[in-house]
Model the fold of this input.
Amino acid sequence: MKAKKIVTAEILSNREIAKGIMELKLEAPEVASSAKPGQFVNVYTGDNALLLPRPISICDAEGSVLTLVYAVVGRGTQWFSECCTGQLLRVSTPLGNGYDLSVVKAGDTALLIGGGIGVCPLIKLAKVLTAKGVAVRAAMGFRDEPFLVEEMKAIGAEVAVATDSGRVGYRGTALAAAMDAGMDCEHWFSCGPKVMLKFVAEEAKRRGRDAQISMEERMGCGYGACVGCVVDIRIEGQEEPVRKKVCKDGPVFRGSEVIFHE
Amino acid sequence: MSSKLDLRVNIAGVEWKNPITTASGTFSPRESSAFYDLSKLGAVTTKGVANVPWSGNPTPRIAETYGGMLNAVGLQNPGVEAYIQEELPYLANYDTRVIANVAGHSVEEYCAVVERLNDTAVDMFEVNISCPNVKQGGIGFGTDSKQAGLVTKAVKAIAKKPVIIKLTPNVTDIAEIAKAVEANGADAISMINTLLGMRIDVRRGKPVLANTTGGFSGPAVKPVALRMVYQVRRAVQIPIIGLGGISTGEDAAEFLMAGADAVAVGTAALVNPTAPVDILEQLKGYMEEMDFATVSDIKNAFQG
Done:
């Protein structure tokens, strides 16, 4: 039996949890059982005109249930949003490497910074870290309407919420909210827009930390064959950066190794 | 059930166990073999490899289109030395033919790669004179029959393995280019590379791809590819490896009837990683249904 495959999963629920944000629960034992925080899955639409799979980060995986939270941003995610309970969806087994948790031990503290739809993978991450005996602090930033905040609090994390509009919590970014609240920790983990990740990586560095950041890039295959999604990675002792695949070598990289281009 | 089927094909003196290979740029030995057994395929065609590492184009490199996609990867590759050290030993674990797709900016660069790979386990060379995403070389050679002939002649003069020339569809008369490469000694032709395309993000008022233009592939291009294979079959005698939007066993059969001797699966494998082996199984099913025993039976059944 091959390590990776595409499976068919039944939709248990698919509901809007905030404006334009959907939570999709799938009965997918093979996917859920092997899911690690920071990994993603390829989800297929049933519309042949929408050729490519949609890479969606794993929000949670418990028992046989896989939870994906996605923003409706284009025709593919619009198609997903119209799916109903009981319908079957094709989905890949987990892809990418996820966050490196080997560096974290019981008694450590971890700061999780998420921006927008980037808060999703932090749920599974917070669960795994908490189970390891790590104290989790989460800063969650949104444009206007927060989501997954209650889920994060239920895990036992100390949570700071920020909104660009100031409608809820701190007015500004998740990073600023975390720094204002003195939430600095030994380990930093982040997921969100590229510009946010750049500031997270820089702030972590100023504090002598090296953030683990989950990068996003337009993907073709999602499994490393097409080399469509690349990020420039600094290699120590080497002048020329190396272009690594976000889908296969990432999506999580060290903030210190990513070269951000404006 | 399929014991009476004989899928073997002979491409320029190299026997493949079946007529299916991968399309260059959509196949990675380690990544693809995580999904299926590479030994099931007649051949695997690896990503374009140059004499030195190429970093490719900036991102975004990928855009979806109606029933297809655009890519502007720009032949990012680790160079021929890394290919020899990392890819070839891994492929040695599998019982399949290895076709090395060769990239270059100049005749000298193509020849440098071929020379370096001459005494390796590579079974055939596929010379990419048709990539639309590199500014210098590539498609420049493939759109001019004189230039295409020159590259073919130079590579043939040093190659110790059969040479396949990969043609671009972005020309006025592809049959003319095919004749030129045949006349200069090409052992086979593979066709088609991607069609030059573009998309614009109308909300940002910018091209979707960082490279502005990219190569269009996927099911949407199949009729164009099929028509070109049909035309070239009537212009040259050498074997043709047909590709362009093949997603099912019946798509593969269409190319064989149009005049291809083997087929390559590309974009379909990006969508469904097991597509090459799925298509092989579907082709077998089609042959049984039609009472065809060999690939020649499929080809001979065409009455167009």
User: Anything to note?
Assistant: The longest strand of chain B covers residues 97-102. The radius of gyration of chain B is 18 Å. The CA atoms of residues 164 and 188 of chain B lie 4 Å apart.
